[in-house]
UniProtKB/TrEMBL annotation:
Protein name: CLUMA_CG002336, isoform A
Organism: Clunio marinus
Region Disordered: start-end pairs: 1-20
């Protein structure tokens, strides 16, 4: 039998997860009218966030990244 309208969640007093924080060594932001890019580097990883608002900018960025990393 399925009871509708009943939600299950964490019980009260459950231990909360602590998020591990890593210090960023490098943060680069590039914001123009057609590109929004952020590069964040830590000791173990590099994160790239990229938004392109027109196809020409997107193609340019893709070619640049392919040249740099591959």
């Amino acid at each position: 039998m399925i009871k509708l309208g009943k939600t299950t969640g964490m019980r009260h007093g459950a231990p909360k997860r602590k998020r591990k924080t890593t210090e960023s060594l490098l943060i680069i932001r590039l914001c123009t009218s057609s590109i929004n890019m952020k590069i964040k580097a830590t000791e173990k990883s590099v994160h790239l966030t990229l938004k392109a608002f027109d196809p020409l900018s997107e193609a340019l960025i893709n070619e640049t990244l392919n040249t740099l990393f591959f």
